[in-house]
Write a structure and sequence with these properties.
single chain, alpha+beta, six-stranded mixed β-sheet, five-stranded mixed β-sheet, 7 helices, 16 strands
């Protein structure tokens, strides 16, 4: 189907979804002016904000030597005529290195200066040297391969120093969060990653399928076996959960878009995205849809799903009262459906207008003899 046809059909399909929802709903109709407080939408404070700065002390790169690091050990024995000994070795899984003449010494967890003292003490204790001068240089830190996906500027596989490897350093290596990023990060340990399926959208117009999910529903759902970290609540995330290991995968989920749908007697039936920290009211939504298509339209039906009710609420709003009374002009929430309803008066006016246009068209085509 051509894109232009899909664009024209989208509002029609949306209207059918609204009518189907209303027709199948057994809930009583409520009046906007007397709507209980628990069914009113709260002021829009925006979605939870990412607080990366609060995690800054979780994990910092350390100068300590770690497993799989490569180091150079230099030994000056102090014996006349003997050349310094230089050896490059990799730290084994038990945290030790096998040093020439000295043997195996554990240095993992020590900074280079402390590691040199550890080797020197072992050399003296084992009777190998009397007063050796030893230095240790970290030449090749061990790294982790971390895959960063989702709402980041430069997704892909990133190589990070194992010391201090955590969620924040991985996001930074991927160029930081993109504008679409939300606060939720999905973490797959050990490379077993499977991106959670997103909400289906129309590829041409971006129109989401109308649904009656309760506000906030499915926001924290994740792939099987995944950990979920909320970057908007650093106080509830332990430092250990932020640490990453080799082949871990992190997926930064995009910010959840929130929509309201406007249909019925409006000039441009459409869905509109809610903007963070900006209230959208009934009159605002109708105005964004081009306004009412009938000059005498007054009855508006607001369909709202709430966490407290299994069935959607049906709330009647009067356009005329909403223009005078802010309590009638309800704040909208994500998933609301606003339908400007046809009434006997609007139907009669529409019929009269149609007959008038037909009459004027016929009269204009008459030829005087």
């Amino acid at each position: 189907m051509p894109a232009s046809c899909r664009d024209k059909l989208a509002p029609v399909l949306m209207s059918l979804a609204v009518l189907s929802a209303i027709g199948g709903c057994s809930s009583p109709r409520l009046q906007a002016r007397s709507l209980p407080a628990e069914f009113r939408a709260a002021r829009d404070l925006g979605q939870q904000r990412v607080q990366l700065s609060a995690f800054s002390s979780v994990s910092r790169p350390s100068k300590a030597i770690d497993i799989d690091d490569r180091v150079v050990v230099r030994i000056v024995t102090g014996l006349a005529g003997e050349e310094p000994i230089e050896q490059e070795v990799r730290v084994t899984r038990d945290g030790s290195i096998d040093t020439l003449h000295v043997g195996r010494v554990v240095i993992a967890g020590l900074e280079p200066a402390a590691a040199a003292e550890q080797i020197a003490s072992a050399a003296v204790a084992r009777g190998v040297f009397v007063r050796p001068q030893i230095s240790v240089e970290l030449t090749e830190p061990a790294t982790n391969q971390i895959t960063v996906l989702g709402a980041v500027s430069e997704p892909g596989v990133k190589e990070l120093p194992r010391s201090g490897c955590d969620v924040l350093s991985a996001i930074a290596a991927a160029g930081g969060l993109s504008e679409e990023a939300g606060a939720v990060v999905e973490l797959q340990r050990g490379g077993s990653h499977r991106v959670a399926e997103g909400k289906a959208t129309d590829s041409a117009g971006g129109v989401q399928q109308v649904s009656f999910n309760a506000p906030g529903e499915d926001q924290m759902a994740s792939s099987p076996g995944a950990e979920v970290i909320d970057l908007s609540h650093p106080e509830s995330t332990s430092p250990d959960r932020m640490k990453l290991s080799d082949r871990d995968v992190i997926i930064v989920r995009p910010r959840q878009k929130r929509f309201v749908h406007v249909t019925g007697l409006v000039k441009t039936p459409k869905q509109f995205e809610l903007i963070d920290e900006h209230d959208m009211r009934v009159l605002d939504a109708i105005a964004m849809a081009g306004g009412a298509s009938s000059v005498i339209a007054d009855k508006v039906l607001l369909v709202r799903q709430t966490a407290q009710q299994a069935e959607p609420l049906l709330i009647e709003v009067s356009l005329n009262r909403a223009k005078r009374d802010g309590a009638e002009n309800l704040i909208l929430q994500s998933g609301d459906l606003v339908s400007v309803e046809s009434t006997p008066a609007t139907a009669a006016l529409d019929t009269f207008s149609t007959l008038f246009r037909v009459t004027m068209g016929v009269g204009g085509n008459l030829t005087l003899f």
